Amino acid sequence: MAKLYSEKPRSERVDKQLVPKEETIKFLLDYSKALSVIDYNKLKFEALLN
Question: Is the full-model pTM beyond 0.90?
Answer without folding.
Answer: no
